[in-house]
Amino acid sequence: MSTSQTAPATAVPVEDALALLETPLLDLVHRAATVHREHHDPRRIQCSQLLSIKTGGCPEDCGYCSQSGHSKSPVAREALMDTEAVLADARQAKASGADRFCMGAAWRGVKDGEDFDRVIEMVKGVKQLGLESCVTLGMLEPHQAERLAEAGLDFYNHNLDTGRSHYDKVVTTHSYDDRLRTLHAVRQAGVSVCSGGILGLGEDRTARAELLAELASLDPAPESVPINTLVPIEGTPMSERQNVDWTELVRVVAAARILMPRADIRLSAGRRELHDAAQAMCFMAGANSIFVGEKLLTTPNPEPGSDAALLGRLGLVPAGRE
Ligand code: SAM
Ligand code: DTB
Ligand code: SF4
User: Fold this and answer.
1) From the alpha carbon of 232, which atom of ligand 1 is closest?
2) Mean pLDDT by 10-residue block, N- to C-terminus, for the chain (322 residues)?
3) pTM to 2 decimals?
4) Could you give the CA distance from residue 223 to residue 186 in angstroms, rounded to a whole number?
5) Residue 238 in contact with ligand 3 by CB distance below 6 A
6) Is 254 part of a structural domain of the chain?
7) Among the atoms of ligand 3, which is closest to the Cα of residue 60?
8) Which helix (H) or strand (E) holds 192?
9) From the CB of 55, is ligand 3 less than 6 Å away?
10) Residue minimizing CA distance to atom 15 of ligand 2
């Protein structure tokens, strides 16, 4: 196992990622499982718990999102939560076995001022509880990333979501390069990068390959890569998008594992609709992280009891329970 955290010296070509996605499924899974075992303890599952600290009314038009002000989703708009209420939730997350607490705000980006000051206090509070901290606040300027780093933030989540060629069919109020600029600011500040995507936005395999190649070509590659499957939200432009076959999800997880051997690959939104055997195949293919807890941001997650039972049956151990 290499100890270097550096990314490949040269960018990963889209064709290479596509060739992986088109490999016969069980060959692909076998290869990914081998890479996984070279770089990770295959029994360990990193468990993050999410909380939406500022919900709804977002000025951006991301077509999948329940929180976009452009959509007719039934999600109510709420102001930034009180710090104590957030920390109470974080305490409960720790007690239930989560090892990382992730706070999400439906902002286009961070604005300096009272709300950002409060988020800084939340990050410090989460750290004091002995949890890893993650926030996702939209676009960031370099000085804001530095403030988060000084507060002790471990991860910043900012997804590329899909391939560059498909991005303008999903979002028009910001660009792919805006996303990359924020990721650069996060990296420069010394905060670990969490960036991944969503399957089921009407993209084809080439767009999935583009996303994987783009992530794997970041220098260095993200430490954490969430792979979401669209949770269709009533009232959004993508309320009735394609159904993604579970084998396609396994392919993307496996290709991500092969292209980003050291990253944590998180089986993220959409697990509720995924049967146990498909989840097991994703873990086999190198997924080693999940969101736990009853809720994601605005939609339900699998029941904590059923998740614990599944991990138990598979002989997998949450990182917070080691
Ligand atoms: N506003 C911030 C941003 O866009 O980075 C943070 C919150 S946003 C809700 C975080 C991520 O959640 C999105 O980038 C997207 O990948 C994922 N997401 C949001 N809604 C989703 C849905 N309906 N289904 C699957 N993933 C979703
Ligand atoms: C990520 O990739 N998935 C999480 C987290 N990062 C912020 C969010 C999933 C949201 C699913 C839809 C919802 O609950 O609103
Ligand atoms: Fe949703 Fe984030 Fe897009 Fe806002 S920027 S609409 S919260 S995904």
Assistant:
1) 23
2) 50 97 98 98 97 96 96 90 98 96 97 97 98 98 98 98 98 98 98 98 97 97 98 93 91 98 98 97 98 97 95 95 75
3) 0.96
4) 12
5) no
6) yes
7) 6
8) strand 192-194
9) no
10) 298
Map tokens 């604005």 to a residue.
111
- Is 5 inside any structural domain? no
For residue 67, give the ligand 3 atom closest to its CA: 1
Our answer to whether residue 47 is catalytic in this structure is no
Reference 176, options 62, 263, 19; nearest CA is 62
CATH of the domain at 210: 3.20.20.70
As a whole number of angstroms, the distance between CA 145 and CA 310 comes to 37
What is the tally of structural domains in the chain?
1
Closest ligand by atom to 49 CA: 2
End-to-end CA distance of the chain: 22
Q: Catalytic residue, from 134, 147, 179, 251: name it.
A: 134
- The set of protein residues with a Cβ atom below 6 angstroms from ligand 1 is 64-65, 67, 104, 106-107, 136, 138, 158-159, 161, 198, 228, 230-231, 233, 269, 297
Residue 272 gets which letter from DSSP? G
Nearest ligand atom owner, CA of 158: 1
Please report whether residue 8 resides in a domain.
no
Q: Which of 201, 227, 200 is nearest to 212 (CA)?
A: 227
Residue type, position 248, single letter: E
Closest CA to 316 of 292, 294, 291, 284: 284
Residue 4 lies in a domain: no
For residue 143, give both structure tokens.
């000085």
Give the range of the structural domain holding residue 77, as residue numbers without chain letter. Answer: 14-321
DSSP 3-state of 261: coil
